Amino acid sequence: MLELRLVQGSLLKKVLESVKDLVTDANFDCSATGFSLQAMDSSHVALVALLLRSEGFEHYRCDRNLSMGMNLNNMSKMLKCAGNDDIITIKADDGSDTVTFMFESPTQDKIADFEMKLMDIDSEHLGIPEAEYHAIVRMPSAEFARICKDLSSIGDTVVISVTKEGVKFSTRGDIGTANIVCRQNTSVDKPEESTIIEMNEPVSLTFALRYMNSFTKATPLANSVTISLSSELPVVVEYKIAEMGYIRFYLAPKIED
Amino acid sequence: YIRQAMLAGYFMQV
Description:
The complex is a heterodimer of chains A (257) and B (14).
Chain A: E1 2-6, H1 10-19, E2 25-30, E3 34-40, E4 46-53, E5 59-62, E6 66-71, H2 72-79, E7 87-92, E8 98-104, E9 111-117, E10 126-127, E11 135-140, H3 141-152, E12 157-163, E13 166-173, E14 176-182, E15 196-199, E16 203-208, H4 209-215, E17 224-229, E18 235-241, E19 245-251, E20 254-256
Chain B: E1 2-4, E2 12-13
């Protein structure tokens, strides 16, 4: 038996909108720790890892570990039927091939339940070790989204370079080149508007903008985004989900042979 | 020539 009641149902709606274009089908894993997902895109270049910790739910009952295969497009269709202020409860019985999403309006005057068919998904799970990164950049998520969008109108790839001068996003295409430099900026009153650069050593990596733009669908989940870079690892683009967990996107770089 | 690396080159399957 599984029953997860999320008062801030809009969080789940936003999570789905941020992953459904990257991944078609995925297993949601439910355990005492929380509700999680790890899935790769079809070309095995990008990976999304989601965690919504059990403590973040108003009610969290998960009698035994359960993995539920869902088509994310279908799940998104169902969650779009929930109001932004609705409380969402996810329910499943042991051995059942369906999951139920229950939507309650804040005033309790409307209660809806949507039952969705589950599917068997053979998913590959990757072990992602804790790592030291050469540089970690924290910046406003809207600013990062804007940069990715702007650069993708010029080129297909972005070079992200971190030096003591700041973080530089560069692209080149048929019509020309573009460089955007963001410097560390902690002097603002609002911490979510600051840009903080922690650099152990300079790093410069190239990534496909198509994926970066897809990751920025998670922008509504968090004011800040953290970009962790190392020349030996895929980049991690992380959006913290207030008091609940995170959504992390991993992207393998483009490498010059 | 620039090629796209795969995640499998960095992370092991578990």
